[in-house]
Amino acid sequence: MQKAWVFIVGAALAVPAFAQSFTPSRPIELVVHTGPGGGSDVLARAMVVIMEKEKLLPVRAQVANKPGGGGVVAAAYLAEKKGEQHTIGIFTGVWLTNPLTSNEAKVSLKDLTPIARLLLEPAVIAVKADAPYKTLADFVNAAKQKPGELKQSGGSITSRDNVVRQQLQKVSGSRWQYISFPGGGERIAALLGGHVNMMVIEPNEAGEHIRAGNMRVLAQVVDKRLAAFPNVPTLKEAGFDVTPVPQVRGVVAPPGIPRENVVYWEGVFKKLGQTESWKKYVADNQFEDAYQNAAELTRFYEEFTGQMRGILQEAGIKTVR
Amino acid sequence: MDVISGLLQGFAVALQPLNLLWCFVGVVLGTVVGVMPGLGPPATIAMLLPLTFLMNPASAMIMLAGIYYGAKYGGSTTSILLNVPGESASVATCFDGYQMARNGRAGAALGIAAIASFIAGTVGVVGVMLIAPPLARMALAFSSPEYFALMALGLAMVVLLAGRSMVKALLAMLVGLWLAGIGTDLFSQTSRFTFGRMELLSGVDFVVVAIGVFAIGEVLANMEGRKAAESLPVPKGLRNLLPTMQDLKDSRFAFVNGSVVGFLIGVLPGAGSTIASFISYGLEKAVSRRPEQFGKGVVEGVAAPEGANNAETGGALIPMLTLGIPGSSTTAVLLAALVLWGFKPGPLFIPENPAMFWGLVASMYIGNLMLLVLNLPLVPLFAQVLRTPVYILYPLILGISVVGVYSTSGSLFDVWLLAGFGLLGYLMRKLDYPSAPLILGLVLGGALERALRQSLMMSDGSLSILVSRPVSAVMLSLTLLILLIPLFNKFNAWRLKALDN
After folding, report:
1. Phi, psi of A177 (to 5 degrees)
2. What is the pLDDT of residues A268-320, one digit of tens each?
3. B415, exposed or middle or buried, with CB in 10 Å at 0-12, 13-18, 19+?
4. Domains with residue ranges and CATH for chain A
5. Residues of B with CB below 8 A from A72's CB?
6. Predicted ipTM?
7. CB–CB of A251/A43 below 8 Å?
8. Is A65 in contact with B188 (Cβ distance < 8 A)?
9. Which end of chain A is more exposed for a tag (fewer CB within 10 A), N or C?
């Protein structure tokens, strides 16, 4: 009830924004590309809770799920909302790679208004606790001896899981199978059940299984060691000269919104990053706070897609753009 | 002894007045969400997440779980009354539920659905309580070859769902399988049959097809009759609106079947309640003494799938609570909620949070009882819906269908798809093609293809992986057996004829 009042009063007081500075006057629609429970959905809902608690917005924000095509539908939805000032969306890496591989994915970050990069999500390489591999080199050597016999579970072939595999295979000259599972739960179940030998997993998910003695981590897909894994080498430290591809999450807006709106949102998300609640959320999930403003994000986008295009082509995946 | 002390501890949590209240709020909300096509439990739970930060986590979990299993109770209502499945798990309920309603037995169908839900739901909770950790480990032994065999077993049910013509049933199933192939291929990231439409990249939503073919097709076919406005028969008197002793007796096996099948399939992270309800329905028909009556309104044809989709809830909670692995979108949201409240779901969750786990288990016993008490008195009330004259009822069904589909996806494209599949459903009725095989193909097709390709990738292309593993070998043999039933029946008929001569 209290929240409803805040909303009504807020809406009544907010003056429609003319030029100069932008202030939202209606509830914000926060578009995510997954259904309820998906990664971006969970992040968006946590974000809404934190923003409300820290009073970062004069209005409420509501999560709008636009699932479909692994992000394509949500990106197109934002593109259609050209000039709409009260809609923003959360993008992830797939928003950047989809346009590279799918004819139907016509909207890239370039066609929207980049606002800010928020997070990088690190990953670790895990095997079952009773597996014979103690180091990443053990695993790669075993794969080299029996090409195509070892297996990795993961998501789609354009996901980071497969990118890490392609990079490792390339520098080591080994080969193992990559088996796609649509759900994260199935990927973990396949590893714990002993049906596959290795997976790339989020540190938080791995953490509990390590604590319970089900999994062992061989290496971390990061540049600098994570606080929770002080004794596990990074890819480079493990002897593989591979540049980790970041798993990124950030905020975009529809195309054609005024410059001052971008400035406003940059400010909101910069402030969000400085709140204690956000810092705790990021630490709890073992994410990496990676705020970048709109200009920096645009540069990041160019570098990232260039790198991805090369990796996908080397992996034999057809790129269309 | 651990179980008893745990359960006592759990009831101490669940019976606190505030928790009882939240449990009640959850199951009522769940029933409402289940009755309305469209808004499902995952979306409802996600919407309520911000609210749960004001509650203590145990109460919040009790309420959110209440929504989850409560929705399964409500889902059957529109399936039975209007042939509009409230959610995908209730599609199999349409087969016999709606036919019962047409025969004037809507009350009995709704009643048996509630009773089956209660029995199976409770069995599911008992399962969670007694065998969660060992069962979760067993479920891990289940991998792609086993999933393939399970889906093949489900698909073989088509010979049981066929009407008069096996060829027509197989054709309908093939169309269903093709529909399942539409969208982005997981393994190669290429799009199939999308005709350049990005809306089709994630495939055709199963609920759109089911509502189109069942509800819209039915309305179109009935409107053509142009009979004077008449309503479906609804008997007078409360006694005639509830299941009879004979109904309960006929459903004895269905209660067991639904409970066991639903629970076991629920534990598997890659299956789900829709598949559970279909397999349980097929199994019921396979062992029935009156299989020819299925699809014409038999009470066990409602009890089995309704039981299965409720027992599935208990099963699905097992990998989530014992391993931190979500098996469905609803458990994924629940898992996200646990993380947001500061818990660490995973293998150590139950040992480290016994009060939470046992509180949840105890609350599910209470919640299932609440749902039974809540739903049975509603039966006569809901049955009155059918007294509505058809010139009001049919537009109402159309409206509910369109709103339901639109509110799920928020996309007008899906509404057009709904219209297209409505037309398809109408044509299939006119040409006497059964619609159940189409739905079956669509439900199982995606998982079947995925599991086969995963298996072949695991074995580097060798088909032997499918038969060299005991569980999948047994299930594939069963599949073969089911496929041979029609042949056997033909042979039997021929033998009898020969004997007569």
Report:
1. -80, 150
2. 999 999 999 999 999 888 899 999 999 999 999 999 999 889 888 887 788 88
3. middle
4. 2-7+26-120+246-314 (3.40.190.150), 124-220 (3.40.190.10)
5. 198, 201
6. 0.85
7. no
8. no
9. N
What integer pLDDT is reported at residue A7 of this predicted model? 47
Q: Residues A24, A86: contact at Cβ < 8 Å?
A: yes
CB contact (8 A) between residue A103 and residue B191: yes
CB contact under 8 Å between A103 and B196, yes or no, is yes
DSSP state of A132: S
pLDDT tens-digit series, residues B283-328: 898 888 888 888 888 999 999 999 999 999 999 999 999 988 887 8
Closest of A49, A191, A148 to residue B54, by C-alpha:
A49
* Amino acid sitting at position A314: E
* Minimal C-alpha gap between A153 and chain B (Å): 10
Contact at 8 Å (CB) between A153 and A193? no
Q: Is the dihedral of CA B389, B391, B394, B396 positive or negative?
A: negative
B164 CB-contact burial (10 Å; exposed 0-12 / middle 13-18 / buried 19+)? exposed
SS3 B22: helix
Continuous segment of H or E residues that includes residue A219: strand A215-220
Chain A partners within 8 Å of B184 (Cβ): 69-70, 102
- Of the candidates B144, B178, B160, B172, the residue with the CA atom closest to the CA atom of residue B280: B160
Residue A16, pLDDT > 50, answer: no
Q: Nearest-CA neighbor of B69 among B307, B242, B400, B297?
A: B307
Contact check, Cβ <8 Å, A103/B330: no
What are the tokens at A93? 């890496």
The answer to whether the CB atoms of A104 and B139 lie below 8 A apart is no
A139 token code pair:
């695993």
- pTM beyond 0.95, yes or no: no
User: In 3-state terms, what secondary structure has residue A126?
Assistant: strand
- Count of positions (residues) in chain B: 501
Q: Which of residues 72-131 of B touch A (CB under 8 A)?
A: none
pLDDT of A6 strictly over 80: no
**Helix (H), strand (E), coil (C) string for A151-217:** EEEECCCCCHHHHHHHHHHHHHCCCCEEEECCCHHHHHHHHHCCCCCEEEECHHHHHHHHHCCCEEE
Q: Measured between alpha carbons, how far is A78 from A62 in angstroms, rounded to an integer? A: 15
DSSP secondary structure string for all residues of B115-135: HHHHHHHHHHHHHHHHHHHHH
B259, with CB counted inside 10 A (0-12, 13-18, 19+), is buried
Chain A residues within an 8 Å CB radius of B88? none
Distance CA A151, CA A159 (A): 16
- The sign of the CA dihedral B81, B82, B88, B94 is positive
CB of B187 within 8 Å of a chain A CB? The answer is yes
- The angle formed by the CA atoms of residues A3, A40 and A38, to the nearest 5 degrees, is 100
| Token representation of residue B155 | 């698909």
CB contact under 8 A, A36 and B42: yes
**Which residue out of A104, A191, A202 would a mutagenesis test of the B interface target, given it has the greatest number of B Cβ atoms within 10 Å?**
A104
Q: Does B333 touch chain A (CB under 8 A)?
A: yes
CB contact B419 to A (< 8 Å): no
